[in-house]
């Protein structure tokens, strides 16, 4: 059932598997590679029980939702989280059971313009939502994920970048706003996550294609975040954002693991591509802060909300999976980080699977890993998809040492990419309307009303 994977190549693999005690949670065992694959297979099956996009009359690539319309617990971008988690699952375990479903979802949600702005999402779609889908397509390209006929993943990721680079403006000296148009709530908020996702995608496109335009813009985005002190110059914490009406001086110092996750991995991609010492140092500073803040006692912990049950939103619930998946890839891109990162991911994954003892199956997973016991997702008002995907990501990522690193243009496939107007651009000719501040001419406003995303930063 599973493809044969190469033997782990680094000494740290022995540390991860040698020190990893067998975790028993209703049959889950993670002491060997084979046990990890078997546990991941069960976790993937359970996670897919939340997905109905492959059912008759349902839309491929969507989880039930959005909550704002009373249709389910999940927003559009959270389906991108599921798709990317399953791409990694296939890459790490060799199990292609869900590949067709994932491929159809990734293609369908790209929309008619192939840029992840489908017509049925435009009323609520914001920059980070689109970026999550762009990163999912980028991941598929880097792993050579099997694509349907006449489909290539790279252009979908490029098209997201091309539409977003046109939205940069000179408010606060550059950067992306959370929302896309002035009619949307959040247009005055320039948040870190939108820019961290844009930075991450650009860094990966730079490495994959070798094109310097992607690299220059990724560096400009970093410089903008640094200049506004969205990244703390002393602590290296990544804060949430600020309002353009205040010239982005009112920095909201809330910290979320996704912000630093996307920045850390993006910095690692640039270092791997350029071998520049500054990016090595930045990666290591971010890794240190990431582990210290979001893995206390070496177990993933979402700082802003996890101290009390019921405080975490459906968005925050799914962040731990990103933390595990992205940090695992950092160890491939900057191997010297492995000794710090892999033992932490190992212990955290063990804590994750040990609490998967709930539900009718006796193996449902919760969110509060550090408690050592299952907490029903109802405590945070969710039905459990994010919780399930988190644990799947954590367990699958234990196989990172035996997996190939993200590919580049030399081994992947290149073709043409559409922009927001469905015009073709080659993968070596991205949009170039950028300047050193990270600003560009703002594209045509997209009419929209309301948004089904978080409101906590405005409280």
TrEMBL record:
Its main location: membrane. One of its GO terms (biological process) is fungal-type cell wall biogenesis. It is found in: Endomembrane system. It is an enzyme of class 3 (hydrolase). GO terms for molecular function: mannan endo-1,6-alpha-mannosidase activity. Keywords: Glycoprotein, Glycosidase, Hydrolase, Membrane, Signal. InterPro entries: 6-hairpin_glycosidase_sf, Glyco_hydro_76, Mannan-1_6-alpha_mannosidase. Residues 406-417, 427-439 have a biased composition (Polar residues). Residues 406-439 are annotated as: Disordered. GO terms for cellular component: endomembrane system. It catalyses: Random hydrolysis of (1->6)-alpha-D-mannosidic linkages in unbranched (1->6)-mannans. It holds the Pfam family Glyco_hydro_76. Residues 1-27 form the signal peptide. Its EC number is 3.2.1.101. Belongs to the glycosyl hydrolase 76 family. This is Mannan endo-1,6-alpha-mannosidase. The lineage of its organism: Eukaryota, Fungi, Dikarya, Ascomycota, Pezizomycotina.
């Amino acid at each position: 059932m599973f493809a044969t994977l190469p033997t782990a190549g680094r000494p740290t693999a022995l540390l991860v598997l040698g020190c990893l005690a067998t975790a028993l949670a209703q049959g889950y065992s993670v002491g060997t590679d084979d046990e990890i694959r078997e546990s991941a297979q069960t976790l993937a099956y359970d996670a897919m029980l939340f997905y109905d996009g492959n059912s008759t009359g349902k839309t491929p690539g969507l989880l039930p939702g959005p909550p704002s319309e009373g249709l389910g617990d999940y927003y559009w971008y959270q389906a991108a989280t599921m798709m990317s988690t399953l791409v990694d699952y296939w890459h790490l375990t060799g199990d292609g059971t869900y590949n067709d479903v994932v491929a159809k979802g990734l293609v369908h949600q790209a929309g008619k313009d192939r840029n992840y702005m489908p017509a049925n999402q435009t009323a609520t779609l914001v920059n980070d939502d689109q970026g999550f889908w762009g990163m999912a397509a980028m991941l598929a390209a880097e792993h050579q994920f099997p694509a349907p006929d006449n489909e290539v993943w790279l252009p979908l990721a490029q098209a997201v970048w091309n539409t977003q680079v046109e939205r940069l403006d000179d408010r606060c000296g550059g950067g992306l706003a959370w929302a896309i148009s002035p009619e949307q709530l959040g247009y005055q908020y320039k948040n870190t996550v939108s820019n961290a996702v844009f930075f991450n995608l650009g860094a990966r496109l730079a490495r994959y294609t070798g094109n310097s335009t992607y690299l220059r813009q990724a560096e400009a985005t970093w410089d903008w975040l640094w200049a506004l002190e969205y990244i703390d110059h002393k602590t290296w914490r990544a804060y949430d954002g600020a309002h353009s009406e205040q010239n982005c001086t009112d920095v909201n110092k809330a910290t979320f693991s996704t912000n630093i996750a996307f920045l850390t991995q993006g910095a690692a991609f640039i270092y791997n591509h350029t071998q520049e010492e500054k990016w090595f140092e930045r990666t290591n500073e971010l890794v240190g802060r990431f582990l210290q803040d979001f893995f206390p006692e070496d177990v993933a912990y979402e700082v802003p909300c996890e101290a009390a049950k019921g405080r975490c939103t459906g968005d925050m619930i799914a962040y731990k999976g990103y933390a595990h998946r992205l940090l695992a890839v950092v160890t491939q891109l900057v191997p010297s980080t492995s000794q710090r990162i892999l033992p932490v991911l190992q212990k955290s994954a063990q804590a994750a699977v040990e609490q998967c003892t709930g539900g009718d199956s006796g193996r449902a997973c919760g969110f509060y890993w550090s408690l050592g016991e299952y907490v029903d997702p109802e405590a945070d008002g969710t039905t459990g998809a994010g919780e399930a995907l988190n644990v799947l990501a954590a367990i699958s990522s234990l196989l990172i040492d035996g997996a190939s690193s993200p590919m580049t243009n030399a081994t992947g496939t290149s073709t043409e990419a559409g922009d927001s107007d469905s015009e073709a651009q080659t993968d070596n000719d991205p949009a170039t309307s950028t300047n050193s501040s990270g600003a560009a001419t703002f594209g045509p406003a997209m009419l929209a009303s309301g948004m089904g995303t978080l409101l906590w930063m405005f409280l």
